[in-house]
């Protein structure tokens, strides 16, 4: 959110906070959400009469957003995830989740399957689940014993 807001604020695009919040909300949709967040401000940038060169602002905003998406998704998030053993999940469980949620909700379920499984694992890791139930579930989700 802060990246999108700062970018649009620096380019003097109207409604930078609104577009920042939309970018934050849409970022929960894997891969597609970031591109939707890039497309939403296009009409505002193109039809803003205050801007001297709206097409150039649009190109700069789009390229900067793509650059930020590339940097964040391919470098920052990878470094954060590779060092986090807490959310480790077996690939077969991930594929089963994609298949299961895809069968229930179609393509939307396939996109939301990994975040839903992550939330499930966070619940299993909480203190509310007794150790006798938690450990077998973690073995199932992670694919190995601790």
Write a brief caption for the model.
The chain has 146 residues and is an all-alpha fold.
Written account of the structure:
- The chain has 8 helices and no strands.
- It has helices spanning 2-10, 16-26, 32-39, 42-46, 54-82, 91-105, 107-125, 131-142.
- α3 runs antiparallel to α5 (54-82) and α6 (91-105) crosses α7.
- 74% of the residues lie in helices and 0% in strands.
- The chain has 146 residues and is mainly alpha-helical.
- It is elongated and about 65 Å long.
Summarize the amount of helix as a percent range. Answer: over 70%
Strand segment count: 0
Major sheet attributes: none
Query: What is the count of helical runs?
Result: 8
Q: Any low-confidence stretches, pLDDT <50, length ≥5? A: none
Overall SS class? mainly alpha
Layout of helices and strands, plus pairs?
Blueprint (H helix, E strand, L loop, with lengths): L1 H9 L5 H11 L5 H8 L2 H5 L7 H29 L8 H15 L1 H19 L5 H12 L4
Helix pairs in contact: 1-2, 1-5, 2-3, 3-5, 6-7
Give structural attributes.
8 helices; 0% strand; 146 residues; mainly alpha; 74% helix
């Amino acid at each position: 959110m802060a990246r999108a807001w700062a970018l649009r604020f620096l380019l003097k695009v109207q409604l930078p906070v609104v577009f920042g919040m939309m970018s934050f909300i849409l970022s929960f949709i894997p891969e597609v959400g970031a591109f939707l967040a890039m497309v939403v401000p296009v009409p505002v940038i193109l039809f803003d009469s205050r801007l001297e060169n709206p097409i150039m602002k649009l190109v700069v905003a789009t390229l900067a957003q793509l650059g930020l998406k590339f940097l964040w998704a391919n470098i920052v998030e990878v470094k954060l995830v590779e060092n986090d053993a807490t959310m480790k999940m077996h690939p077969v469980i991930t594929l089963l989740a994609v298949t299961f949620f895809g069968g229930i909700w179609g393509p939307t379920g396939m996109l939301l399957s990994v975040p839903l499984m992550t939330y499930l694992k966070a619940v299993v890791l909480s203190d509310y689940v007794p150790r006798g139930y938690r450990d077998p579930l973690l073995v199932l989700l992670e694919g190995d014993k601790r």
